Amino acid sequence: MPGEKCGLFGARCFNNKCVFDLLYWGIMAQNHRGHESYGFLTRAENFRRHVNIGLVPQLSGRRYSRWRNFLKGDVGIAHVRYGTSGERSFSKLDYAQPLIASENGEKIGFAFNGNIVNAYELQDRLAEKFRKDEVFYDALVFSKYLVNNISNGLMSAIESCMRNLEGAFSVLGLRHNGELFAFRDPLGIRPLSIGESEDGMIKAFSSETVGLNINGLRFIGDVKPGEAVVVTRDGMERERLVKSERTAFCAFEYAYFARPDSFLNGKYVYSVREEFGRNLGKRFRDIVENADIVLSMPETAEDAAYGLHEETGLKWERILRRHRYVTRRAFILEPEERVSTIDRKVNIVGERLKGKRVIIVDDSIVRGDTTRTVVSKIRKAGAEKIYVFITFPKITHPCFYGIDMATFDELIGFRLDEEGIAKQIGADGVFYQPLEDYIRATGMNANELCTACITGEYPTETAQKMAEAAKASAKIEDQRRIYERPELLRG
Ligand code: SF4
Fold first, then answer.
1. Which CATH number does the domain housing residue 452 bear?
2. Is residue 332's pLDDT more than 60?
3. How far away, in angstroms, is 206 Cα from ligand 1 center?
4. Residue at 101 is within a domain
5. pTM value > 0.85
6. Which of 22, 128, 212, 462 is the most exposed place for a label (fewest CB within 10 A)?
């Protein structure tokens, strides 16, 4: 299973309501998108900022009131982070967002979801803007780039970002004058939805629609790829600044990251996942006919297991149970932590497994260690045969756009074929959903989705070049993420 992502929520109240209530619940609903740090930025007479590491805390009573009093104002943005740029560390407050960037009297709050492929190149161009002690990461470079161009107008600065930054970016920003703005890269790789209250007195942005739902706001559409949306005291202004021939929404959002009750590109994620399960049931009917039960990895594969059960009639047993308060997503952890965390996180009702031929449905295999841990538990409980069904097609290439699988060597699907993977994870067989089935289930067209980690065809130029250069040197022991190896572009 995988990890990164960040989650965003921002809102403006036109009725003097305190924005903190919206921000708190809106970002809390999206904590699955980032466990490393969280942050809030509001504006009253000036900016109020609070960031910290870990999950968004449960607040109640006086503590909630204290936060609300400090983070006052009617406009603000919030962020949860899991980093795909900068040092892989769980304790660095330096990377927490929203951050504040200032230049020539302009000051902006900035929060972003995605990853910039050419951040090193931009950092060189902006070298004199960095303090010697500043820690490099792409959000910092991005915010400096934006604020440095803002003297020509906000829309012009955003357009310049869209034309000069390569990668995935859904951004929320807050100007010191109280303007709230949002934009998405021209390929629309990461999600960003817009909502409002019934009376129109609240406008909001949220990475996933669940952030709107929890606040009782209605979804009114997505920020379109290449579009900027600005909310001022006078209302909302939208402008499509850059149009691209294709889009490239991250296909992986459907299998793993997004919450099942989120609405992406016209479909609820849970219904797409059910379709994945039906597809697997149809494609691998001979395996299903020789199995006794289907199990699902909690929680991202449950809808798919249900779909398979519905399609084939195979008994679905919820034998794998999650310890609810062990919250860290395994894919984002360091290798030694990952195995022990998944071991603690998933419990097995073993008595029902003795002598059974079992299908386990999971969302993806990235490095293989989490799947191996679960397969070994099921084997120990006495299962006779174990077949692993995977909803996301085989991951063979790294991601440059905000998912932390950024080298070839770490990907089991790059190194091994299905038989080799089955052997390595201790299963009797591994079966991936074919890409065409996957795309059909999303309701999108192939030229609207990014599937680079499956096909090796990247929707942006630098990423393609870096992937090819890195592939040629994939055997070199280099733990750095490929987009943090600028020498690859220099040939
Ligand atoms: S490479 Fe894969 S994980 Fe990364 S954006 Fe594309 S589909 Fe998503």
1. 3.40.50.2020
2. no
3. 20
4. yes
5. yes
6. 128
